Amino acid sequence: MKxxxxxxxxxxSTSLVAVVLLCxxxxxxxxxxxxxxxxxxxNQVGTLYMSNMSQQISMHFATTIxxxxxQLDALVTSIPPDSxxxxxxxxxxxxxxxxxxxxxxxxxYSTDGTLExxxxxxLEVTDPEPFLASLNKGEKKVAIGTNADGEKVIxxxxxxxxxxxxxxxxxxxxxxxxxxxxxxxxxxxxxxDQVYSFxxxxxxxxxxxxxxxxxxxxxxxxxxxxxxxxxxxxxxxLIEFQSAMNDRRDYSAECVIGGDRRHIYLTDLPxxxxxxxxxxxYSTMNSIVSGLSLQWGHTALLGGTVLLAALLFVFAQxxxxxxxxxxxxxxxxxxxxxATKAKSEFLSNMSHDIRTPMNAIVGMTAIATTNIDDKExxxxxxxxxxxxxxxxxxxxxxVLDMSKIESGKMTLSMEMVSLREVFDSIVSIVQxxxxxxxxxxxxxxxxxxxxxxxxxxxxxNQILLNFLSNAIKFTPDGGSITLSLYEEPSTLxxxxxxxxxxxxxxxxxxxxxxxxxxxxxxxxxxxxxxHKTEGTGLGMAITKYIVDAMGGAIEVNSELGKGSExxxxxxxERADTPESDMILPDWNMLVVDDDRQLCESAVTSLQSIGVxxxxxxxxxxxxxxAEKRHQARDxxxxxxxxxxxxxxxxxxxxxxxxxxxxxxVPIMLISAYDWSEIEQEARSAGITGFISKPLFKxxxxxxxxxxxxxxxxxxxxxxxxxxxxxxxxxxLLAEDNDLNWxxxxxxxxxELGLELDWxxxxxxxxxxxxxxPAGYYDAILMDIRMPVMTGYQxxxxxxxxxxxxxxxxxxxxxxxxxxAEDVKKCLACGMNAHIPKPIDVREVARLLEKxxxxxxx
Amino acid sequence: MTLKECFEALGGNYDxxxxxxxxxxxxxxxxxxxLEDGSYDLLCRSMESGDYAEAFRTAHTLKGVCQNLSFTRLxxxxxxxxxxxxxxxxxxxxxxxxxTTQDYALTVAAIRDFQASIPQ
Lengths: 857, 120
Known about the structure:
By secondary structure, chain A is α/β, with parallel strands linked by helices. Chain A is built from 23 helices and 29 strands. In chain A, strands 13, 14, 15, 16, 17, 18 and 19 form a 7-stranded mixed sheet that branches.
């Protein structure tokens, strides 16, 4: 058990840990994975964002530059070189117009690449070749130049042919703008310093750079600053970067500068040999997204915790349930063990109890064998053997009863029972034991309104016997035992009476603890003083069960050392009693008993059967009353005298009465004791006869009937030979044997007046029945073992016929087989009853009368 | 030979049968009729032919007749034979059949003696 419990605990804790670990792993993985995903997403979003922004900037650049170029172009158009104006005039006009348009510098570009300034400081073109080449081709172009201070200037060139100072014709008109113009217009330097852009040339030199990029070349900056670019070394990155520049395609990468991740986007700018490089540190987006992932992580953590908590809760509940179940199991096991223990204890007690009488039987048998010639000795032995056998039988019966009860097989068979007979027989059964133990025995019966009731007489006997034998067993010598019965109206209705049976003793009594479990199976008061008294300990359990089955109740009152009282209440159905039959002449009688209740009850009973009666509580007053009557010449016809009376006892009283009155008056002794013991003494004292207690009405009637002067004393008419009801009934008898048929025919025809038809086998029986009109036969007597068709088959066939009387006609088996299973089989195949051979006319008549419908004649 | 003596000779219970049939005339009539009863012949034939189901049935019939007539001795042997054949052939059956034959012979002999002693 314990091991099992530990195993469960271990299993639970292990699986709990496993689940927790699994939870942590899954959520960690999810968090990690989502983080990865979000990083990738940031990259994608960054690329998208950057490309968009770079394109914006690039387009803005293109728009700004082309606007400026257009302005310059418009200047050229409004002041055509071939207008025939003087060069100075032209220059003034151009300068004026350019100034209006906010150009900081203006000059003419010669074919050899020198710049002749119209206003503003002298400028140097930083990378003249491509600029010049483009302008020579007549294109518009942007380039960068430096002034005398080394400041960078954006140069815009539009090809045209203005005369130059040296008389030659220029290639283009070049206007200059400070780089700050571009960076401001393009907002290359964002305020928040998060996004910044450079404009670089193909060789990596900066055209416009932000403040911290103090180096001349971007490439140099890369080589010095960049730790890692998208998993590449700076050199590898530069190679890729330059190839993207050469192909003039957009390029994006991710780099780490000083541990700070940045996104880089490269796009080329129109009208120039320049590229726009936009950089955005990740920290911004990162902080947003990492906030998101942090939140995500928190949520996941929270979710995990909630899940874990739920799991823990479920585990805890489950664990609790399991523990509870275990406890219940444990309890059940303990109960079962206790029951087993009780049973095995019971078994060992029983074995002991069985062995005791068995030993006596064996021993006595041995003694009888050795003394086979000593008749007295043998008789003595046999007597003891008989006693022991009876005791043994009692034990075995108890055990059988209990096993019947425990398997639920005990049933009650309700039949009409005379309480008088039950009590009479009980009293006569217990008398010898009471006598042996020299105990006083009182039987008190009063308020009996119904003597005949429906009850299981065997079981009722068993109840009474159990109580009484217990009372006798546990009451010491000289103690007293009282059995009383009275009736009162039942709550079940008028057809019922409530019978109260009390058995009271002055015995050793019971402890309250034992009273509580007295009706349990297999218990016996386990104390030294009881051990010498034998018994199965089942009696009370059986009694309780029977009383329960009868719908009654048992009460116990007991005090240790003072005695016990058992009180059974039963609701019993009245059975009709032919009361009118019980009428005696209108005698005067005297009832003498020390129990007032008994006297009154007896007087009432006597009155109801037509007898007037007086009563007295002791011998002396009885003698007085009898004498008084005698003197008044109005003697009592009969006197009923209790044996045990206070003062002078019944026999002495009788003696005195006889002395005074002569022996004319019959005196009957009433007692619960055995008459035979005192008969001789009683008769010599003048007592005529004996009526056994309890005094039911019918007890009195039957006891007194003998004194009725009989001229109408008809003998009991036994209805044995009058079967008028069966006279002329038509019976079909199936019997294959001629001789049996003749015997049956002879007996049933002559004795019962039946009309018999013979069917030689089952088939003929079936045919005859089928051919006869419905109701023609009143019954069928059926042999079982017949050729062609057995009685079983014939019965089944008849029952299956489709006619009115097929189901109802009584079919009674008559066969030489009388085993219980034969009877059962007969009933199972549709027969009503079974008569074993040899044919007994009375039995046949009884069953026919029972089954044949009297109205069908 | 009286009927009662005849019953003693064949191992029957005269008092019992008288209790049931109630008349000596009837008992005599049926006892003599027993000589014509074919159950035993049928039993012999079915035992010989090995038809033990039929043998059971005829033994059963013989048993029934003996019960009705209180031929206790023959009843006892035929009843034993009947039980030995109830579920088909058993090794006890032939021995019991011999016993039945003996008892039957004894019974028939007693009845014939009685029959001979009746004044015609």
